[in-house]
């Protein structure tokens, strides 16, 4: 397969561009691409550019070729609101959600979230998750990068959802997605933490107008539930 790379900044229509140090390091030292190797660059604005690698000393350049206006975004815009999960679970959720076509990811602080983030530490984790999303786009062929939003408390996120099409995954609650009518705009899906939702949190979701939805009679882990919901929505309303 031809290697794909995200190029930070707007790609010109032709000519050549110097590869940023991180990109050049990955291409030359990690993937060990040789001078003249074919590659594909995308800048996140839609479309991708054929290119060839030019190696000059320790520096890398891309000789730009034809630009293709291909769009691999899903027809259903799903925003995944994921309650913070511990360990590498958030990395896993971000990576796989991007592969499944998520439009954006909103990390949410819930009462029973094992991981607690705020301030500079939260900013660093968000930046890390955004880079995970970039890497997932490189691998999956997407040319637009879903935004990973800043971490917000659940109450703050719910305030922003009033009037939106939003669902909360709750075992034993409501019908499944196939029983719903397809909305006109974005679909927001809220996933709980390892310890599940508290009764007060579910009541707050109800008050904010979220619809409870189930994914069947089994209880799914937090890192499984959102991905399962994305797959269902892609199969029901998207491009699966």
Automatic annotation (TrEMBL):
Residues 73-234 form the Ribosomal RNA small subunit methyltransferase E methyltransferase domain. It holds the Pfam family Methyltrans_RNA. Keywords: Cytoplasm, Methyltransferase, rRNA processing, S-adenosyl-L-methionine, Transferase. Residues 19-58 form the Ribosomal RNA small subunit methyltransferase E PUA-like domain. It comes from the Bacteria. GO terms for biological process: rRNA base methylation. Its EC number is 2.1.1.193. It is found in: Cytoplasm. One of its GO terms (cellular component) is cytoplasm. GO terms for molecular function: rRNA (uridine-N3-)-methyltransferase activity. It catalyses: uridine(1498) in 16S rRNA + S-adenosyl-L-methionine = N(3)-methyluridine(1498) in 16S rRNA + S-adenosyl-L-homocysteine + H(+). Specifically methylates the N3 position of the uracil ring of uridine 1498 (m3U1498) in 16S rRNA. Acts on the fully assembled 30S ribosomal subunit. Belongs to the RNA methyltransferase RsmE family. This is Ribosomal RNA small subunit methyltransferase E.
